[in-house]
Inverse folding.
């Protein structure tokens, strides 16, 4: 049983978590981490985001190819932090650095985006209605691993990201205890405590273009994964090896549901 002092401390802790829920006028801030993105998808992603978000926050992981200059060209990029030393081998630290940079801009909602993801037209049209409500604190989408181009996505026993929902949009509540798991690889895009809050699972689509490039590009990613996680501590070795499958099962992409 709690004494008076403990009850007072508990009440203070609960009231310190300010749940800011608004059904209108929410500021939507995209946050993304980048590293050596020149010649890939970054400009297309920033063009796309600029159409439907209010602000963009970026952490550059010590790029060596001028990626920060690309970011600076976009008016909606309100904060760009360039790291002097890369954190890609400690992904949880990189995620945390991005989170701290983003919440420092006083957002209402945060959209966690990778530099190779494009939201469908239907998703972009729906996003304001999804955030301007007072009942749910995260939104999940269907992400599709596009493969070898933008006309097909991969689907087999090891590749089925689209078969589950991925939460990438979250309401920011000052005082809520956000944190990331201390993993070097495959860190979730949103802090773990977000999962206990009420959310919405949608059927809206997002294209992941990370595997849409050339075979050489996929081989480079395979080698990077094997270097970062040689024993499969953070992911599946079988999944890593399947990157090199010469005849993966591919399904035609359709923009609409």
């Amino acid at each position: 049983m709690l004494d008076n002092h403990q009850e007072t401390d508990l009440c203070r802790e609960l009231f310190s978590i300010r749940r800011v829920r608004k059904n209108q006028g929410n500021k939507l801030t995209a946050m993304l981490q980048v590293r050596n993105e020149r010649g890939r998808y970054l400009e297309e992603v920033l063009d796309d985001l600029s159409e439907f978000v209010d602000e963009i926050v970026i952490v550059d992981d010590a790029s060596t190819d001028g990626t920060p200059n690309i970011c600076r060209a976009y008016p909606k990029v309100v904060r760009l932090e360039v790291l002097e030393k890369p954190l890609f081998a400690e992904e949880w630290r990189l995620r945390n650095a991005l989170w701290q940079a983003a919440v420092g801009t006083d957002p209402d909602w945060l959209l966690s985006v990778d530099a190779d993801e494009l939201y469908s037209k239907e998703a972009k049209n729906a996003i304001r209605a999804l955030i301007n409500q007072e009942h749910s604190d995260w939104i999940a989408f269907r992400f599709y691993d596009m493969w070898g181009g933008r006309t097909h996505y991969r689907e087999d026993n090891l590749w089925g990201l689209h078969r589950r929902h991925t939460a990438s949009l979250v309401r920011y509540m000052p005082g809520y205890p956000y944190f990331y798991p201390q993993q070097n690889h495959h860190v979730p895009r949103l802090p773990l405590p977000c999962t206990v809050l009420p959310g919405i699972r949608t059927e809206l689509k997002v294209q992941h273009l990370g595997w849409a490039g050339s075979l050489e590009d996929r081989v480079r990613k395979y080698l990077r994964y094997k270097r970062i996680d040689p024993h499969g501590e953070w992911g599946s070795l079988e999944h890593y090896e399947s990157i090199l499958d010469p005849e993966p099962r591919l399904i035609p992409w359709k923009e609409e549901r």
Observations:
- The chain has one domain: 4-141+165-210.
- Helices lie at 4-16, 42-52, 67-72, 91-103, 121-131, 215-228, 237-242.
